Amino acid sequence: MTHSSVNADPAELAKFSELAHRWWDTASEFRPLHEINPLRLGWIESMAPLAGKQVLDVGCGGGILADSMARRGAQVLGIDLAKKALRVAQLHALEAGTPNVQYREVAVEALAAEQPGAYDVVTCMEMLEHVPDPSSVVRACATLVKPGGWVFFSTIHRNPKSFLQAIVGAEYVLGLLPRGTHEYMKFIRPAELASACRAATLDWQATRGLKYNPFSGRYWLSDDTSVNYLVATRKP
């Protein structure tokens, strides 16, 4: 299947493939992902305990979240279309001896057609703002999860504050992320994501904001969803 026929931006895939070998370097561009991962993992587990569950991580990249969910006892499949990042994820799982985690190069829409209702938990973190059609990803995630199952998203709000913090601050001033990581017009307002979830028959359960203090270098979850935010939804 060519990338032109799937819901992916070839430039985005190339961007993450370029950096693939650095996914598990905690001092690299991916350091923020390593630092926020315990927060994301803890929040997911507070609502959907992972042990013994079938879990899908959509847009898994180098496997940071997928690997940690497998270590909590879940049977995890990580999917992505960035081939090099997946190879890094597979290699890390082998080297670290992570049980119960597999990786596949497949579009989420294609997997939804193949395995509807197969997963207890679906996570899609930091991905929606990188695809041409986010609502298509939301629909596919809703198809993949079992009735009563959970779907978790995280993305970035679109407003002047998020432009200043997530692009100007994070990419240009603080250098937390490579320049060009994000495009402002691809950011997603919570109301837009809520609408996509409603259309996909996912019930909106909870929202949390992710905050960062550049002076202490500390991340934490808060009620402020004006920049980075996480959403928990559930299939009826």
UniProtKB/TrEMBL annotation:
Gene Ontology molecular function: 2-polyprenyl-6-hydroxyphenol methylase activity; 3-demethylubiquinol 3-O-methyltransferase activity; polyprenyldihydroxybenzoate methyltransferase activity
Pathway: Cofactor biosynthesis; ubiquinone biosynthesis
Top enzyme category: transferase
Entry's Gene Ontology BP terms: methylation
Keywords annotated in UniProt: Methyltransferase, S-adenosyl-L-methionine, Transferase, Ubiquinone biosynthesis
Ranges in a coiled coil: none
Catalytic activity: a 3-(all-trans-polyprenyl)benzene-1,2-diol + S-adenosyl-L-methionine = a 2-methoxy-6-(all-trans-polyprenyl)phenol + S-adenosyl-L-homocysteine + H(+); a 3-demethylubiquinol + S-adenosyl-L-methionine = a ubiquinol + S-adenosyl-L-homocysteine + H(+)
Keyword Ribonucleoprotein tagged: no
Gene3D superfamilies given in the database record: Vaccinia Virus protein VP39
Entry binding sites for S-adenosyl-L-methionine: R40, G59, D80, M125
Enzyme nomenclature, EC number: 2.1.1.222, 2.1.1.64
Function text: O-methyltransferase that catalyzes the 2 O-methylation steps in the ubiquinone biosynthetic pathway.
Family (UniProt): Belongs to the methyltransferase superfamily. UbiG/COQ3 family.
This protein's name: Ubiquinone biosynthesis O-methyltransferase
Lineage of the species this protein comes from: Bacteria, Pseudomonadati, Pseudomonadota, Betaproteobacteria, Burkholderiales
Gene symbol of the encoding locus: ubiG
